[in-house]
Design a protein that fits this description.
single chain, alpha/beta, Ubiquitin-like (UB roll), 2 domains, 9-stranded mixed β-sheet, disordered C terminus
């Protein structure tokens, strides 16, 4: 039986040329496919036609949110940058967080979370006593029209920049303590040196001093536990207290002065 002669191997340069041709053909096909997909993606049918907005809208209507965010959206269903779209919606006043999703073939779905204002904010470094910002329930400072705030009795937090979350945390712990004396915190201030001060709705002001939250809380609880003995004895309401003393505290009651009347007359 005759044997078939083995096929002669192609020269290396021929094999290289064939391989190169195959690679270029594949790249060309991919490029044509990419151009085709790009052309399809740019067709008007894929332009974003509708934006559905769900979630918190207590301070904004869906119409207002679209009017604010839509002009900042660039691209169509395929080319839209979802990160940039999210930032556009979160730039709308009162919007804390937005989740933006594509809905085939030409819509966007936006789920919103609004800020819930729990306090007014004053940056102590600015030296301006007027509150121009708000603090939400997460301790984050945000800007919004104060006229849109429904609660007229929001407390004021005044402290250095970046301390709003820590201040809200201590406020949350202190408020129930002062509630035992039928008082509410109107203002909580933190100095640059870390000293705390409280203003109550009764008009009283209290220097709480420095220390950890636990230390300040314990000092306040001890003060409030003994305060009725002082106010009850003199039948006067608290006007001012200083808890920064190591072994006790100093108080000033309404209608009672610590300055001797005779000493006053001598100075006249």
């Amino acid at each position: 039986m005759a044997r078939t002669a083995p096929a002669t191997a192609l020269p290396a340069d021929i094999r290289l040329m064939n391989l190169t041709a195959i690679i270029f053909a594949a790249l060309g096909a991919v490029a044509v496919l990419a151009l085709g997909l790009l052309w399809v993606a740019k067709q008007p049918v894929f332009a974003v036609r509708a934006i559905r907005i769900d979630g918190d809208m207590a301070h904004n209507s869906a119409l207002t949110i679209r009017a604010n965010a839509a002009p900042k959206l660039a691209g169509n269903f395929f080319t839209l940058d979802l990160g940039a779209a999210r930032r556009a919606f979160e730039a709308v006043p009162w919007v804390r967080q937005a989740v933006v999703r594509r809905v085939w073939p030409n819509r966007l779905s936006v789920q919103l979370e609004e800020h819930r204002a729990v306090a007014l904010w004053v940056n102590a470094a600015n030296g301006d006593e007027a509150a121009d910002k708000l603090v939400n329930s997460f301790g984050e400072v945000f800007e919004a029209n104060l006229g849109d705030v429904e609660d007229d009795a929001l407390p004021t937090l005044r402290g250095p920049e970046g301390t709003s979350a820590a201040m809200l945390a201590l406020f949350t712990r202190l408020q129930p303590v002062f509630a035992t004396m039928d008082a509410h915190i109107d203002a909580l201030a933190l100095s640059g040196r870390g000293s705390w001060r409280v203003g109550l709705d009764t008009g009283a002001e209290i220097e709480l001093g420095r220390g950890s939250d636990d230390e300040v809380l314990e000092r306040t609880q001890s003060f409030i536990a003994t305060l009725p003995q002082v106010t009850g004895h003199f039948q006067r309401a608290l006007q001012y207290a200083d808890l920064r003393h190591r072994d006790g505290y100093a108080v000033r009651l309404k209608g009672i002065t610590t300055v001797d009347a005779a000493a006053k007359s001598e100075k006249k």
